[in-house]
Amino acid sequence: MNRLSQLLWALLLFCSALQVQAAGSRIVTDMQGRAVEVPENVESVFTDRFASLIVFALDPDLLCNYTFPVGELAKQYISPAYMSGKVYSRNSDEEILKQKPDVIILGNMTGSDDPDELQERLKIPVLMINFRLNDYPRTFQFLGELLHREEKASPILQFLDDYIVSLNRKFSKIPEDKKPRVYYAEGMKGLNTEPSNSFHSQVIDYLGATNVADIQLGGMHGMTPVSMEQVMNWNPDVILVWSGMPAGMTMGGKKSTDSNTMTHIRTNPLWSGISAVNQSQLYQIPALPFGWFDRPPSSNCIAGVLWTARVLYPEQLDFDVDQALLEYFQLFYHVELSKQQLTHLLKGN
């Protein structure tokens, strides 16, 4: 083979390699508008703490890490596949490289890693997803297409449309004077809370209720302190009591912070003059396997939409909330609950 033939052959091999590389990858626009080159087939995903439960809902086998420990009391309410065979890691470069994921998925939230910097540093595609309640239909559609899991995304999208989106459509149009006035009680004495537009209180906004807490938005972890006088002035119709921090994640046999908060509000005479307390409109938010309201503010909040809708609008729902919750656990946690297990959860653990 002469020199020219060798060069032509080398060029042909190079072009063939480029074609194979092109055929084996594609350009995807993530939910932050970034164009990212990803493998044609994604079989392994590393997530940050906010995206973990969302990817798990779509396909447990894709995850190579888990980001929230599951306490003993919580294990019966989520498939073992969430932790089994996976490493506990949130944002370790060393661990990510060790796991060799095809892509990294981050939740679009203040405090998350900069996706471009992370991608450049690790040479692994990084994609951003949104995870507020209004975003979930688009998020699961995006992930289904990105990960070629459209069939797995389909029942989740149907569930969201049948129950969650329909609740938002129905109750977001309530006249201002008809909206339930809600206080979200956090902290050991109930004197921490979240304003409207917080990740931690988004369920209230989503269901068209009025969040009475007229305060500034706090940091990523929320829990803005308020005074008893402020709560008295707001005089909410309904009080929803937090499920601890981290919610439901350290409840393995220990007395939980949520029951302490509920007990304090019920027994402290300063709270007795508030409408929600003396009208028995004080409710403990369920906490297993993760908080149903927030902490983490991820797809676990979807169960909170169903639960809160029944608390706020018990006479206005046209579907069986218990049945919807059983479907939720099957789709998002990959576990089939008995009605007895669900009843236990609804008692506030």
Automatic annotation (TrEMBL):
Transmembrane segments: none annotated. The keyword Signal applies. Pfam families: Peripla_BP_2 (PF01497). Keywords: Signal. Residues 43-316 form the Fe/B12 periplasmic-binding domain. Residues 1-22 form the signal peptide. The keyword Transmembrane helix does not apply. It comes from the Bacteria. This is Iron complex transport system substrate-binding protein. It comes from Mangrovibacterium diazotrophicum.
